[in-house]
Amino acid sequence: MKTKALPDQSFGAPALRQVCARARLILLPMLVVLCITLVGTAVGAPLESRRDQITKLVIQIQRADYEGDRPALRRLYNDLAPFADDKELGARVRYWRGFALWRRALNGSNEKADPGELEQDLKQAVSEFEAAITKDPAFVDARASAGATLGRLMFLYVRNPTIAGEFNDPARMRESVNRAISYMNEAAAAEPENPRVLWVLGPVRSYLSLQRGEGPNKAIDAAIESYQKGLKAARARKSAVRDPLIPSWGEPECLMSLAGANFYRTTPDVAAAEQYARSALALVPYWHYVKDILLPQIAAAKIRNEIVAIERAALDRWGKGDPQGYLEIMAPDVTYFDPTREKRIDGLAAVKEYILPSTGKIRIDSYEMINPQVQRDGDVAILTFNLMDTVKRPDREEKVTVRWNSTEVYRRIDGNWKIVHSHWSYTKSELNANK
After folding, report:
1. Of 245, 132, 151, which is closest to residue 200 (Cα–Cα)?
2. What is the value of pTM for the model shown?
3. Which of 50, 98, 101, 103 is nearest to 74 (CA)?
4. Is residue 47 over pLDDT 90?
5. In the sheet that 380-392 helps form, which strands lie side by side, from edge to edge?
6. What is the largest CA-CA distance in the chain?
7. Residue 431: which of 389, 411, 403, 408 has the closest Cα?
8. Are 385 and 423 in contact (CB under 8 A)?
């Protein structure tokens, strides 16, 4: 008995070849388009990928600088090495490699790092910046940074002559200082409104002022003028830079340097220093130096000034015969020593009983508080100073000078500084005079 063939069994080799041919005609153009697309992507990928990789590393370098992360700065410097000779981006890469080591050294200075290590960072940073200049002679930021880094290296040698080697020779040192200044002057001539150029010129302006014999305050004023110009320029071009590989930092640095310059004046402007420092921190909230070093120093200076002012106000009233100036700033549990007493006086009531009878009987024509120093730990602060009182006695023409040693221990109570211990003694010369 014959069996009928199933429909699919009649699908022989000729038919299969025909179907495959039609499939090739349909799929081949699609494959060609896909291949062209893939090849185009592959050709374009390396450049874009390199730029992306470099950009990520540069962003990390700037963050590590502000965070004071010196190990990260070294690592990121090395991570940029494969891109250092890139034809299109090599100059920028060299700049940011130099930047990483420059800032590693600056952060290291704040941490009292080994001078030899700082030297190596600065020397290599100068080399990187000079390599950037070789690749792109018009790269102004590289010139400014090369000058600033070389100047910092010479400053390191001045502070650490044991590692200076040939730079202990004044002529060799002067040659390098002039080279550093030349780099920065070239940058300033090319871009006088570049905020980073104006920032690195601040110390140069200060140095040249001192060289002219204008004194420390004039020197600081010269630096402040440059920082203020840099701040203005940074704010004016804030939105001008779009490429993250082009340096655009400067505003926070100018604010930080304005804070430092006002703080380190002969007579510090603590209020201005704090305002500038807080403005810098508002721009970079994770800035280690400003947050953990500069602002605590400013806060300590504010407390010092506050405590010295409290003491001076009490001394002013005491010299006019008013002991209430001291009694009002003493804590209830105050303890007291002075050279006329054999024993310590305990408690505010007992101190009042001792000094109130002096009301109207004391007359000090002038006084000088010498070298006041405040040491603080939390809510306790110790003020130490020497005091020189000048008194004109009614029975004599000449004035009499009395010299004291003073220690005042203050404690912050309900937000106010109060004396919890007061100790007065004559200086050695006074003891000899009273024998």
Report:
1. 151
2. 0.80
3. 101
4. no
5. 345-346, 330-337, 416-426, 399-413, 380-392, 366-377
6. 159
7. 403
8. no
